[in-house]
Amino acid sequence: MMTKVEPHPAHIDRLLEAGRTGEAIAATERAAASGDKEALFRLALWHLIGEILPRDLARARQLLRKAREAGHVEAAHMEIALTVTGSGAQADWSTGCMLLQKLSSIDAAAAHQAQLLTAMRLDAFGVPKTLPKAEVLSASPRVTLFRDFLTEAECAHIAATSAPLLEPSLVVDPASGRQMPHPIRTSDGALIGPTREDPVIRAINLRIAAISQTDVAQGEALTILRYRPGQQYRLHLDTLPHTRNQRVKTVLVYLNGGFAGGETQFPSIGLTVAPRGGDALVFDNVTEDGRPDVRTKHAGLPVRAGAKWLATRWIRARSFDPWRGPEVPL
Ligand SMILES: O=C(O)CCC(=O)C(=O)O
Ligand SMILES: [Fe+2]
Predict the structure, then answer these.
(1) Which domains occur in the chain, in start order?
(2) Any idea where the Fe2OG dioxygenase domain is (predicted)?
């Protein structure tokens, strides 16, 4: 009697390592066609990454849906993130929330996210109905503080999402425009790209857009930084060289307290902000004519004890497509 043999994931990996990409794709497609959820998920990832197969967000969405229907929990989470961020289709907050609700019955992480969302006051698009009051720390250049912008549970969720992704931070090298390690920033960092932007993080990004009076599409992927004793971000401007879509604003969200040092300092305007967990700081990086404003040079002073966790959102002048360019923060 003939038995159906599913290609083992290790078999596909071996084909890929041997450079037999065509055979690996064919084997995975056969398995996917027979309803194998791992194969469906793998094809979806290939269409998201765009190396083994061409990047095709809409196709990735279909494959993730099928993988989710076959019981793949990670595919379900990814489908939800792409749904709420509008990757491969228009952003659809209510469908994303509905899928999250369904997933909650079988997955504790989804249930926790659903609970965090319930505690937020959001409209039908995930936009907050109310905002904390702004405290203007400097009128020109504009620096504004929003106390208790995030709850402790929201901060913990961001930190937990980024923790497995933390790597030594990179900065953009002005000469080459490439990302490289640099002593200017010695923290560890992680990007929360569109496949990991779950509804809670999406809602927080929408809240960041609201306090910065920008559109959520202008924001780069949320960057999480963790500074341990001795680590710092030396004096710098957040603007980028050679770009037509400048970083016009920055939002820093302090995710914790209980550490020493780590103040954010703006020496030109004599301003030092002591981080407090949950607070958000918003500042302009450019003058009214759109040029870098050197008065907003700032530093994250060295942490002396404990660990400082920070979420940074660099906000561009216009929409910023996270899927453009070779290095997408998946
Ligand atoms: O760590 C800080 O307080 C500053 C961080 C910062 O400058 C940035 O993320 O652009
Ligand atoms: Fe900065």
Answers:
(1) 9-91 (1.25.40.10), 134-316 (2.60.120.620)
(2) 213-317
